[in-house]
Amino acid sequence: MTVNEYMSLTEMTGTEINNYAPDFELLGVDGQVHHLTKYL
């Protein structure tokens, strides 16, 4: 895989800079569910 191919795969999509991020739920390696709102 070339650098350009890698960069196209990791290109940011979705929420623009300076906009609010949508809330999310992620299961952490600690077994707990993490929410964005918990860290704001």
Q: Major β-sheet, in short?
A: 2 strands, antiparallel
Number of strands: 2
Q: Give the overall average pLDDT.
A: 75
Rg over CA atoms: 15 Å
Overall spatial form: flat
Order of neighbouring strands in the sheet with most strands: 1-2
What is the distance, rounded to the nearest whole angstrom, between the alpha carbons of the first and last residues?
37 Å
Low-confidence stretches: none
Order of helices and strands: HEE
Beta-strand percent range: 15-25%
User: Helical content, roughly?
Assistant: 10-25%
Account of the 3D structure:
There is one protein chain. By secondary structure, the protein is α+β, with helices and mostly antiparallel strands. It has one helix and two strands, in the order αββ. The protein has a two-stranded antiparallel ribbon. It is flat, with a radius of gyration of 15 Å. The termini are far apart. The model has no long low-confidence stretch (mean pLDDT 75).
Walk me through the topology.
Blueprint: H1 3-9, E1 25-27, E2 33-35
Antiparallel strand pairs: 1-2
Characteristic key phrases:
40 residues; 1 helix; two-stranded antiparallel ribbon; single chain; 18% helix
